[in-house]
Amino acid sequence: MNRLHPISAVGSVVTNVVRLGSIGFFAGMMLTGPLDVLPLEAVFVLAPAGALVGAAYAVARYYRFTYALAGGTLSVDSGVFDRQEREIPLGRIQNVDIERGPVQRLFGLAVVKFETAGGSATEAILNAVDVDEARALQSAVAQYRREDDETAGDESEPAHDMAREPTGPEQRRLYELSTSDLLTLALVSFRPAAPAVVLFGVPFAQEYALRLLSATVETLGGPSTVSLSGLPTYSTGEALLTVGVAAALFALAAWLLSAAFTITEYYGFHLDYVGDDLRYERGLIQQYSGSIPLEKVQTVTVRENLLMRQVGYAALAVETAGYAPGSGSQDASNTAIPLDDRETVLAVAEALTDADVPAMERLPDRSRRRYAVRYSLLPVAATGLLLSVDTLVQTVPYWYAPLALLPVAALAGHLSWKHRGFALLDHLFATRSGVLVRSTRLVPYYRVQTVIDTRTVFQRRLSLASVTADTASTASLLGGDATAHDLDDQRARTVHETLRERLMADLRAGERGDRRQGLTALLDEADAPDGGVDAGQPEPTESSAREP
Amino acid sequence: MERLNSRVQLLWIGRAVVVAAVLAGVAVAIDRFAIPVDPPLIAAVVVVAAVLGTVHAVLRFRRWRFEIQDDALFLVRGVVTQVDTSVPYVRLQHTDTQRGPVERLVGLSSVVVYTAGTRGADIRIPGLRPERATELREQLRELAAESEATDAV
């Protein structure tokens, strides 16, 4: 039985004292002041009493929280009033994540999170333990899995202890995010949080924002002071300039903030191959480290946004069934390679899935027509709306203006079509879609849970269908399912059948793909003492098959 | 391919009628508390909703079928968007029979199969006679056990 680190108890005592002490204080103020039920002195009793209760509860919680890693299970006993005893078989643990905030780093502590496939939240959180203990726990889980693999079929239960073995498994550097790549990543990635923060932040720094705006507008020949009340007095040109500059400054601020977020999140990112686990570390202020067992990998996704495609870069995500849907930094937790050139990313993806990422099968031409028509509906509808306003309510000049967007709609349709595709390989189903962010999803057949065909009314008219290979992977909202969209109806039926057959065949054959060998070969090929995969030159013959 | 019990149409039509009635209630509320609405308009909306719901229920019943195949449960359903689903027996986590109060009223039962997938995690076969539902559940359980899932998540 182990306890959490005593310093963490001190920390939670302090937080609880502050929290309950202030609750006591405010309750006292309310009861003595406006409500006038108690004499004024009660405040000096209630506040310390609250603090005392908070401290006592924190101490009790600390002493009632024990964990142990033995006999192939992680057991966590917790709770002061409601006691909870939880046992997690080590073989079922998907991810072990270590997080260290600034305070924890100051005291050499770390928060350890254990994820399994079931449940709606993280299954066990140790907040917090010594950082060496955290690493030892992470290794022990990996160690157990390895031994369990070796003794598979053997009835004798291997003894497991805290496994602080002196000779750990070989650790090899698979990937390291260089400073220049980090900066590139910061510039090409977009975070929706950034504009939101800028939007909420501007009112707090109103003075500075206005001064900056005024200065910029003035240098460009606009009015010398910008204010909302002055807006009606501007000429059209001045107003346009002001609005344009404001928008540009907003975009710039959002972009810089987004870059800052990306840098703090991915600073010092590196990925190691330890035993049968992938292990990453990243973070500037809050440090994260996570382990992804190779045997738990459900799907592998290659992601390229519009900007990354222009410069030939891509990112790689490895999904397990561990994270609960919608859990916070899920995207970052799944990331195996935040950014690297396409060739390297594909090489790692191929090693992880033991398959060559193929040229994709294109969709039929009528799918392209379908997309073009679908996107055209928007300008057509807008025109219709304006026309009806024009005839029924009041005259609208240029009511046909939205029709000018029709070529854009056609182009969007073409691009959607061009970036969509799928492929059936020996042991792998691959799908690709997305224009702004293109995702190539690789699903080993033996990971398929259900196969779902859908045909909407509009698809049926063109005899098209979509096929989804559902897996247990907790794909993010952005990522979505491995769906091959708008195939020919007949082809969709074949794909459905094939997925089913291959699933059974690969399960029966015990096909798991030799990812271990693939990765080792890749690392050997890199053939540099500390260079990682980056040093490996892609073979020219491989690239020809992969171009979109 | 096995079809559902035809009584399930009653259930679905009933549901459509309830939706239409709720619509009528909303329309009456708007008429009473906000802006006046023509009674004929209300009647038209309710009738159209009820008719559409009924047609949908009938078409849904005609389309719905399922089959216990060699290695997977195969389902065909959907009116506007047609959906074909294969649920391999190896992937069955557990199977339920469920009977809601309204289902009990028409003497029907549902079987729900669960997988570990994220999209098609639970799949419901409605409109079964209770005996058939129990039988199906047992059958699926045996098939799942026979296929012995070697691939824990």
Q: Care to describe what's here?
A:
The complex is a heterodimer of chains A (548) and B (153). Chain A has five domains: 6-64; 67-170, PH-domain like; 188-266, no CATH class; 297-363 and 420-546, no CATH class; 365-415, no CATH class. In chain A, helix 12 (365-392) packs antiparallel against helix 13 (406-419). Chain A is globular. Chain A is an alpha+beta fold and 548 residues long. Chain A has 17 helices and 19 strands. The model of chain A is unreliable at 153-166 and 528-548 (pLDDT under 50). Chain A has helices spanning 6-32, 42-64, 102-106, 131-150, 179-188, 193-201, 206-219, 236-266, 306-310, 330-334, 342-353, 365-392, 406-419, 457-461, 489-508, 515-526, 540-546; strands at 66-70, 73-78, 84-89, 93-100, 109-116, 124-130, 171-176, 270-274, 277-282, 287-293, 299-305, 313-319, 335-341, 421-424, 428-433, 437-444, 448-455, 464-471, 482-488. In chain A, the strands form four sheets. Chain A has a seven-stranded antiparallel β-sheet with strand order 6-5-4-10-9-8-7. Chain A has a six-stranded antiparallel β-sheet with strand order 13-12-11-16-15-14, with helices on both faces. Chain B is an alpha+beta fold. Chain B folds into two domains: 2-62; 65-146, Roll (PH-domain like), CATH 2.30.29. Helices cover 48% and strands 24% of the residues of chain B. Chain B is built from four helices and seven strands. Chain B has a four-stranded antiparallel β-sheet with strand order 1-2-3-4. In chain B, a hairpin with a 4-residue loop joins strand 3 (72-77) and strand 4. In chain B, helix 1 packs antiparallel against helix 2 (39-63). The two termini of chain B are 31 Å apart. The mean pLDDT of chain B is 89. The interface between A and B is medium-sized, with 33 and 25 residues.
